[in-house]
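Reopening this ticket.

The earlier resolution said the output was attached, but the attachment link was broken on my side. Pasting everything inline this time so it's all in one place.
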Amino acid sequence: MKKYGVNELRKMYLDFFASKGHLVMNSFSLVPQNDKSLLLINAGMAPLKPYFTGAEIPPCTRVATCQKCIRTGDIENVGKTARHGTFFEMLGNFSFGDYFKHEAIAWSWEFLTQVVGLDPERLYPSVYLEDDEAFDIWNKEVGIPAERIFRFGKEDNFWEHGAGPCGPCSEIYYDRGEKYGCGEPGCTVGCECDRYIEVWNNVFTQFENDGNGNYETLKNKNIDTGMGLERLAVVVQDVDSIFDVDTIEALRNKVCEAAGKVYHEDLNADVSIRLITDHIRSATFLISDGVMPTNEGRGYVLRRLIRRAARHGRLLGIEGKFLANLSETVIAGSKDGYPELEEKKEFILRVLTNEENQFNKTIDQGLKILADLEEAMKAEGKTTLAGSDAFKLYDTYGFPMDLTKEILEEKGYVIDEDGFKAEMEAQRVRAREAREVTNYMGADATVYDQIDAAVTTEFVGYTTLEGTSDVTVLTTESEIVESLVEGQKGTIFVNATPFYATMGGQEGDKGVITTANGEFRVDDTIKLRGGKYGHVGEMVSGMIATGETVTLKVNAEGRADTCKNHSATHLLQKALKTVLGSHVEQKGSLVTPNRLRFDFAHFQAMTAEELQKAEDMVNAEIRAALTVKTELMGIEEAKKTGAMALFGEKYGDEVRVVSMGDFSVELCGGTHVGNTSEITLFKIVSEAGVAAGVRRIEALTGQGVIDFYKKEEEQLLEAAKALKASPADMLAKIAALQAEVKALHSENESLKSKLASNSLGDVMDQVKEIKGVKLLAAAVPEVDMNGLRDLGDQLKEKLGEGVVVLASAKDGKVSLVAMVTDAAMKAGAHAGNLIKATAQIVGGGGGGRPNMAQAGGKKPEMIPEAIAKLPEILEGMLK
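Inline output:
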């Protein structure tokens, strides 16, 4: 048997099913579309759910894919074993009411034995206990002896996921030989050892589960096949695990090279090598699909993967940043099947490097906080770190618990792991409670789910803003109806519409739909599954019924302003790439008649100079009066033009390419001006961060810019009036006022300092000596925190060496300050711990460094008691 590589096997599988009449589709994005039930795509069938349920009509009744997938359910085991991984590729052939068990079983056997060349004598099928039909096909049609066909129960061979389509499975196992076995006498298919490995799973989706264990036979039976590409490669290449197949081994070797390690020489090092190898694959593919590292949702999955890999790099002794280099190996090994990796290479490497930098800062910050927690435990005589503190390090600073545990164990401390787990579970419960209730497809259940999947709408609004069409469906907010009458809110569906529906960041059109007897105000236009356009709004007068011919009229002014803003967004994206670099990628946009918003990948705030350059560039292209041209072409042809595509966007075979002279070329389904001069003017009004590595620009065009400057002028005149100056003299007047305020502030601070000193009087006679360390603890009336700090500095200077603690009550609140000199610190005094204990007495909290700390409180009446207790608190600290 030839030992085919991963890339060869992928192509062989897809070519085989293309020869069997299947439409080969590119992998869908790892980010689920219109499916809130999944954080990330975790199976080949997940993106195809609308076709299985009939919510959408598939492009072909036979489909084959190689789908990139991520599963993080057992992320804690990745690296610890050679079995576990988070990223994998799922080969799948699917039938939507077309072929069924006979073909699915025959083709799986044909591919494995005749195309790949696996030994038929080493293949063993399994079927569901009650599935005699599948058993007979294997036995009588394929010719497998009955004793080599295994029957398993529901747990192993029946696929279902709550309510929805489900059915029995038939798996195919491969005997890898005794060298991979456990050696037990009863070792056979189903054993937990690595000898018999499942390579193929045919799911026969023939039932509908109502969620209560009742099954109905589906009218259209489906086939859902899943086969892990890496697992198939393990069998074909006869290697120990997924970490030894050709493309992954090449990456694993790069990890070893970076660490100066040899695989299989040290068990602990092997754990880190496997973990990094797996996690950098997942991270690379996630970033290529537009996921950014954040602290929630799929962004947190990515952040955790990157940070775990970075931390294990430290454990292996890898110095400096290394993840981007490894990612280049991932891209080189997988770009044949996923060309988007090469296209987004620069961006992927920037994101990884930026996150690695962030983590290096965070981990150092976490180490400092952990050191403070150790000091506190030492002062309180404890040896166990509270679970809540360990969780804070993990949750706030991205500090892995196992690293916290490792550091503490070296110094004789332990973690309250049960407390940590309780905090984790509380977070999971909060996340579960926050999840939205969805239907089987992970979308909010709506009245639109009841509409026939065959209903569709043709969009004619690129060339006209008015047209006539027949009403196909009418709904209220809760049901499908035959008519809508005056005062009712609802949605109208027609065969063809000039109304653009909200998508691609562009807001849907507004306008009116009329007949001789009725008028419907369109407040929004939405696009639903299957290409349906819904006109959402309210009946203003009369009635409209299903089947009637209606006139549809888009609000022309609103559409024109939207076109200006959308075309300006294209110009802005190209300007940003020119000014900031090619790593800039669109992360989201909003285009309305009134404004535009553009989110893009960039890792720091733009400078005023950069913003001005981008704005000037856009205005220059507006003045250049570039012709805006739209062409329909094949996706590959479009890519050759250099057209910019969006992350995670699923494009069809034919795409619209919008070009503005030679300046900007993008794939876009939106509406645009005919010439850039129609935009008139462009003005950036704000730039800010919205997420890690994502910036947002808000801008205006045309009349919006003129209105903006009118408002600015009004505010300028109002400000001049308040200053009693003309606009031309405002800067001089403001400078004079600032100088006056500065002088008054300085005088005020000087007076406050004198008042504080006078109110305290001579307190040096209150100094006490505790175990050879001088302590000055005093209460000062009506002084704020700044005043207390100034006073503390003065008293510390007078004291020479020792400890100063001051308390004051002002406006019903307590302020506390503690200062400790170097000699006192060496004797065991710690300002942070002192202030923490004192603050508890006055009903507050706080802390700080060993040499200086401050806190607040809510019980001014407890200040005398707090001052009285300080000698005792200090004595407990001193050596």
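Reporter confirms the inline version is readable. Residues 435-442 have pLDDT under 50 and may be disordered. The radius of gyration is 34 Å.
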